Amino acid sequence: MHESITIKDIAKALGFSTSTVSRALRDSHEISAETKRIVLEYAEKINYQPNPIALSLKERKSHSIGVVVCEVANNFFSQAISGIESIAYSRGYHVILSQTHESFEREIVNVNHLASRSVDGLLVSLSSGTINLDHFKKLHDKGLPIVFFDRIPKEINTHKVASNNFEGAFKATEHLINSGFKTIAHLANAAHLSISTERLAGYKAALEKHQLTFTEDLIKYCGHGGMVFEEVETAVKELLHLKNKPDAVLITSDRLSTCCLTILNHLGLSVPDDLAIAGFTNSNTAELFNPPLTTIRQPAFKIGQLATEKLISIIESKYPVTEFTTQLLDTEFSIRSSSVLSRKPALPDVF
């Protein structure tokens, strides 16, 4: 039967005390550089692997990170999670995933469950149903490291990583304007989410720059973010029944974009001739849609990586962390057929 090598075995072989070997493996400042070199070289030679259970008990760490997102199947979040895992596993941390499905109640249950399992920290993207942050504030006040990404709150002082949503929405809206569209609608997630407020601000800024009037009727919010098809269908039909019908729409998420395309197809409307579309999406098949979709793509993988690096920096800091940053990464804008006009007939009055 194979027996794992212990710190005692290394100490006996090298003639050091077990405490000296332990400190050397932990890169303690109390141990000389030469002793560290001898211990680490020998540990590598014999392929020493620390016992994770013993290590977690001694350090009071689980070497695990909890991740809270709305939906793993979402293109953005699946890519962000890959980024999270790429950093976490390389640094010796396991990743525990949980999905809220845009439910505030489920978010609370998931967060409390992860905390009860003694995760070393949390990476969180808020659910669209989140109405207050008390469950996060309590854990944050108790010292649990938390980093927010993509959907970030203002109220909690910690590291945050997201896309430059304002810039992405501004570029896409300006493109639609420059393509000849003058009545541009905006289909968004829940109004209170950071991604919604930032993208709305970019949309408004583009309209203002080009002296187009902002109209509240052209803004439709879908609180479930496209997870309830009927909600999106109602929003799209309301836009199309407006007296001042939109000739284009800026859409703020994967699911909303695909739902909108499906609805327009069911109504017998053509994109972009009846309604042009530019949308936030991280789908790798956007160019295969019918028509190919003009997209604002977020650097999801990099966002996941940076958020994880920030969280681990808090977890492993020897001193309380009091200075935090909010990093906004540039989006990538790709123009395709869904926003390039070939002809422009009037929309039919009845759908």
From TrEMBL:
Q: What single Pfam family name could you report for this chain, choosing any that match? A: LacI
Superkingdom of source: Bacteria
List the protein's name: Substrate-binding domain-containing protein
Q: Which UniProt keywords apply?
A: DNA-binding, Transcription, Transcription regulation
Give the species this sequence originates from: Mucilaginibacter arboris
Q: Which InterPro entries match?
A: HTH_LacI, LacI/GalR-like_sensor, Lambda_DNA-bd_dom_sf, Peripla_BP_I
What are the recorded GO MF terms, alphabetically? Answer: DNA-binding transcription factor activity; transcription cis-regulatory region binding
Classification via CDD domains: HTH_LacI (cd01392), PBP1_LacI_sugar_binding-like (cd06267)
Question: In the UniProt record, does the keyword Cell division occur?
Answer: no
| Residue stretches in coiled coil | none
Q: Tell me the ranges covered by the HTH lacI-type domain, including all copies.
A: 5-59
